[in-house]
Amino acid sequence: MGDDVSESVPVRQDQPPSYEKSDLVEEDQPTSVEEVALELMNFPASQKKAVLEDGSLEKTVLEVEDNPTTSEEIAMIGGQDLKQYTFCVFQEESHLKVLQSLIDEELSEPYSIYTYRYFVYNWPDLCFFAMEGDRYVGVIVCKLEATIGGVLQGYIAMLSVDVEYRKRGIGRALSEMAIEAMAMKDAAMIVLETELTNKPALALYESLGFIRERRLLRYYMNGVDAFRLKLILKNSADLSFSED
């Protein structure tokens, strides 16, 4: 499919994921979810890798550049020309205010500053910003932790793009960078939640290979249900899937 159809509502999660059994309703699943193996998409050769292997806070800027060997192929993601944008990871306190500004404008009940700090200070290299010139126009916030079964599970906590910059592939680009970064850190799977009624967000994530795992009743503060989505990065019969 084409451009990401909506990046208007960041994934809502005030605290690290924690679910009650009574709040979960199983959705119809493929006949063998365990056998679903999704290859991480091929990223443009001109896109620099968005990972700080040493976990430092050095600024890493990802620029989508022209490839001189194939001048007719302008760096694009999802059919969108992104060469005017740059991308960087969280690196300093000032980024916290930018992050808060981009996400809070989308929420009727904004997050606590402590929620943002929980993510960006523990996983700064999994928080990516999109910029046009000096203007921050999008952000994605993720984390990576081991499950009880010992496998690494990535989590996309928040995704937001400035209203003036939607429908340009920025949300898709940020999502792909986050997925690649977590895959390079040996994540076995990536999960997220999004509103049941947010069809554009569901379309974006499903186009990236996520499948619907569960329906979470009254998940959000406004009483709206959510879908929990999962992207499998490793095909293993011994894989311990995400915990309830």
UniProtKB/TrEMBL annotation:
List the residue ranges forming a coiled coil, or say none.
Answer: none
**Record-level GO cellular component terms:** NatC complex
- One short Pfam name that applies is Acetyltransf_1
Q: Which CDD domains match?
A: NAT_SF
Q: Show the GO MF annotations.
A: protein-N-terminal amino-acid acetyltransferase activity
> Which parts of this chain are annotated as the region Disordered?
1-30
Q: What is this protein called?
A: N-acetyltransferase domain-containing protein
